[in-house]
Amino acid sequence: MKNEEQFNLEEIRKKALEQFRSGKSLYGKDGAFAPMLKSFLEAALEGELDAHLDVDKRKEGNRKNGKGSKTLQTSDGPLEIETSRDRYATFEPELVKKREYSLLATFVELGAVWGVSKLHV
After folding, report:
1. Rounded (to 5) percent helix, strand, coil in the chain
2. Which pLDDT tens digit goes with each residue over 100-118?
3. Is residue 35 helix, strand or coil?
């Protein structure tokens, strides 16, 4: 990521404690953890695309082709992320699938893979 956001962990810790004590969401639009979740999702999706575009696909002419934005619905409100595209539109992300807009569905699916029930997600 060229414009990677730097996190001040002490600031995040203070904001998280304040929001936790007041009962506010930690992941909502102004939540303490929202920037970290956004950064994690974008980096993971970028890694998936890099893995998809192996040497053979690049030789065939397929490569990164810009970014788009996607708004994911979470239990604490919307979260906007940037998603990368490939030129031939053959990339099918696993973490947040195409035309999937619910982050909860992603976490439930990951929980099933890791053996965690829906109650723990």
Report:
1. 45, 20, 40
2. 888 765 555 554 444 544 4
3. helix
Could you give the CA distance from residue 23 to residue 2 in angstroms, rounded to a whole number? 35
Distance CA 45, CA 116 (A): 22
Distance CA 119, CA 101 (A): 21
Q: How many other CB atoms are found less than 10 A from the CB of residue 41?
A: 20
Q: What are the two backbone dihedrals, phi and then psi, of residue 74, each rounded to the nearest 5 degrees?
A: -115, 170
* Structure tokens that stand for 84 in this block: 């990368």
Report the chain (121 residues): mean pLDDT per 10 consecutive residues.
Answer: 64 91 84 87 93 92 92 84 93 88 63 46 42
- Which residues, at least 6 apart from 87, have a Cβ–Cβ distance to it below 8 Å? 61, 62, 63, 64, 65
Strands 77-86 and 64-74, by their bridges, are antiparallel
Distance CA 82, CA 21 (A): 31
Beta-carbon contacts of 102 under 8 Å, excluding residues fewer than 6 positions away, are 72, 73
Name the residue with tokens 């001040």. Answer: 8
